[in-house]
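Ferredoxin: structure, please.
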Amino acid sequence: MTYVVTESCIKCKYTDCVDVCPVDCFREGPNFLVIDPDECIDCTLCEPECPAGAIFRDDDLPAGQEEFEEINARLAKIWPAIIHKKAAPEDADVWLEVKDKRGLLEE
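Here you go.
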């Protein structure tokens, strides 16, 4: 089992989750974070820290979010690690409630 960052993170990119990860398994892209499934130890610490509610166990992904398991695995191979919390984008709170953001993901 691993954890997966889903669509809600797109354009919000809060990094509270990064701060609590004991194995530095988060990777950072232009407007999204992913979890490296090869590094995640299933500790569960990141899930409750996400203000966007974007982190789920891979066996508990909401309907319509299944593709994010593959997206996390693929992008984790090419995006750099993020190991410290950063300020969220200035408009993160605006994007928090927006649905259907998949088309906005910058790979």
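Notes: The chain has one domain: 3-82.
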